[in-house]
Write a structure and sequence with these properties.
Distance between the termini: 28 Å
Helix content: 25-40%
Domain DUF1330: 3-95
Protein name: DUF1330 domain-containing protein
Number of strands: 4
Strand content: 25-35%
CATH class: Alpha Beta
Radius of gyration: 18 Å
Shape: globular
Organism: Streptomyces chumphonensis
Largest sheet: 4 strands, antiparallel
Strand order of the largest sheet: 2-3-1-4
InterPro entries: Dimeric_a/b-barrel, DUF1330
Length: 120
């Protein structure tokens, strides 16, 4: 199952380290089959607020996403970003093939103590 590293980059302070980070990150991703799906894109806010940019990196699985983030190669370049860009980063699993959101809805209803039938 795919996994994703998602960064919400909120506050950017221009510094020569930032382009250095951008130039070096791809080499840290390659050994883990990571690839940029979204990189520094301005978001179109539909609900709420979202100051800043978003980055999404796809991996074949959670193990490789975690291994990339913890790798010595990435940890070496990470401070080039974190010293100058404020943000959050998470790793999340994708949904499995054949995912049915109705099953999730049923689990939520059950957890709420309301296992009534769906509208389908």
């Amino acid at each position: 199952m795919n996994a994703y590293a998602i960064a919400h980059l909120r506050e950017f302070r221009p510094h020569p380290d930032v382009p250095r980070y951008i130039e070096r990150i791809q080499a840290t991703l390659a050994p883990y089959s990571g690839r940029f799906l979204v990189h520094g894109a301005q978001v179109e806010v539909l609900e709420g607020s979202w100051p800043g940019d978003v980055v999404v990196i796809g991996f074949p699985d959670l193990a490789r996403a975690r291994a990339w983030y913890a790798s010595p190669a990435y940890q070496e370049v990470l401070p080039l970003r974190t010293r100058h860009i404020t943000g959050d980063c998470v790793i999340v699993p994708g949904v499995p093939a054949g995912y049915d959101p109705a099953e999730t809805a049923a689990k939520v209803r059950e957890a709420m103590g309301h296992p009534e039938a769906t509208d389908r």
